[in-house]
Amino acid sequence: MSIDALASASFELNEDQRMILEQADRFAREQLLPIAEKMDNEEWWPPELFALIGQNGYLGATIPEEFGGAGLDLLTAGIIIQVFGRYNPAVALSYLAHDNLCANNIYRNGNAEQRAKYLPKLCSGEYVGALGMTEPGAGSDAVQGMATTARRVGDKYIVNGRKLFITNGPIADVVLVYAKTSPELGSHGISALIVEKDHPGFAVAQKMIKMGYRGSQTGELVFDDCEVPVENLVGEEDGGVAVMMGGLDIERAMIAPICIGKAERALELSVEFAKVREQFGKPIAEFQMIQGKLADMYTELEAMRSLIYRTLAAADKLERGAGGRGEIHAMTAAAALYAGEAVNRILNEAVQIHGGMGYIWESEINRLFRATKLLEIGAGTSEVRRIIIAEELLR
């Protein structure tokens, strides 16, 4: 289906998708919500959590069944992320890095041997996956500013450099890493490599403490003459920019549903609170100012949902090696842009409705509020997203 056809299509969930949403909601409410506060307070990740998620069939959402996955489309996979984000955004973020940035990238761009070796263990949760792109000197300028290098010596690549702000970095078994194999070629000299935690020269330099998504482990990775077998090259040597750009488009499409989930939960908590919190002798839900805030929250949530579902459906048609250009490039940037900024507005109103209780660290609404800012920064800042959209409009 073309993007033009998708523009007029309905994005109501079908019966199978509604069933998956209900099942994932029950799993997340029973298994992920009860540990959310401990994860946030202690910056703690339950060591068996990925295995538990895998046992319940939620890992490898977009990976074919032959590799242990569920074989779902991006929209259905996005629904799972949405529900995880509703009850435990930290888990949703780590799940995204594992299932989409690592596993889906290997499936889309890897060869038969790489798929057979890594995907079953990523789908079961035996392996934890991560993506190594951002560096101390290369955030928004991830391509030109990349300093990590990979030099081929015999049957190995020797990797040197650092990767920063890496989700799942401290707990990852497998990291898909971008490095410059031909620095003199600039953006045309980047390659993608699968690095295992036991490869000589690989180390986690530090675990980083964050404002939000605190249970999701974030770290700095160091490659000091790290030895990576040549067979771990994903795609062609110096062809990594195509892997990166397609991956970024899908990442932006897939990170946005976390915003839907958080906004859904914020609206639910705010409605409940407004009904029971009394001031001036009656529930604050009876005041038109509060009603107006709830109405605005609902409207932004539904607008966000429609744009994101449409984008996920369009991104599902992205061919191998495609991305980084065209309407899908603008659409994924727009979805991430609007979702990141809308969820900030929704959570700001939610804290306002909760008043002092919303400002208390231990409250769930406070935890959701602290986790909003990242979605205006991760997978490209709001400023970068606007540049992408404008470039495609003016191209």
Q: How many domains in all?
A: 3
Structural class: alpha+beta
Q: CATH architecture of the largest domain, please?
A: Up-down Bundle
Q: Tally the helices.
A: 11
Calculate Rg over CA atoms.
21 Å
Helix content: 40-55%
Corresponding CATH superfamily of the largest domain: Butyryl-CoA Dehydrogenase, subunit A, domain 3
Overall mean pLDDT: 93
Profile the largest sheet: 4 strands, mixed
CATH class of the largest domain: Mainly Alpha
How many distinct beta strands?
Answer: 10
Beta content? 15-25%
Could you explain how this protein is built, in words?
- With 395 residues, this protein is an alpha+beta fold.
- The chain has 3 domains: 3-127, Butyryl-Coa Dehydrogenase, subunit A, domain 1 (Orthogonal Bundle); 131-234, Butyryl-CoA Dehydrogenase, subunit A, domain 2 (Beta Barrel); 240-394, Up-down Bundle (Butyryl-CoA Dehydrogenase, subunit A, domain 3).
- 51% of the residues lie in helices and 15% in strands.
- The chain has 11 helices and 10 strands.
- The chain has helices at residues 3-7, 15-42, 49-55, 74-87, 89-109, 112-124, 240-276, 288-315, 326-354, 364-370, 382-394; strands spanning 129-132, 149-153, 156-167, 174-180, 190-196, 202-208, 218-229, 233-234, 278-279, 282-283.
- The strands form 3 sheets. A 4-stranded mixed beta sheet has the order 1-4-5-8. The protein has a 4-stranded antiparallel beta sheet with strand order 2-3-7-6, with helices on one face. It has a two-stranded antiparallel ribbon with strand order 9-10.
- A hairpin with a 2-residue loop joins strand 9 and strand 10 (282-283).
